[in-house]
């Protein structure tokens, strides 16, 4: 029984260490992909210290007018044949599976 418990604890410890190592490798990969090691890399937010006050400013402040974008998209109202075909196909499959389930359960 003692050997079994030691084996279980050893495997659990190995799995825990593997998860931590995987997280570290993923973190390093994300930093490489973002290019944060690049000396010319500039962040989106800059912190300026004025006396004892800290101020946050954006490099390129962007204002989002979602209502205007929504109206513009509604005006375009482009027709996508693939989305309409996908909707019809999914409705057909849903109806067929519903009928099949009802016929089986009766």
TrEMBL record:
Keywords: Signal. It holds the Pfam family DUF3679. Residues 1-21 form the signal peptide. It comes from the Bacteria. This is DUF3679 domain-containing protein.
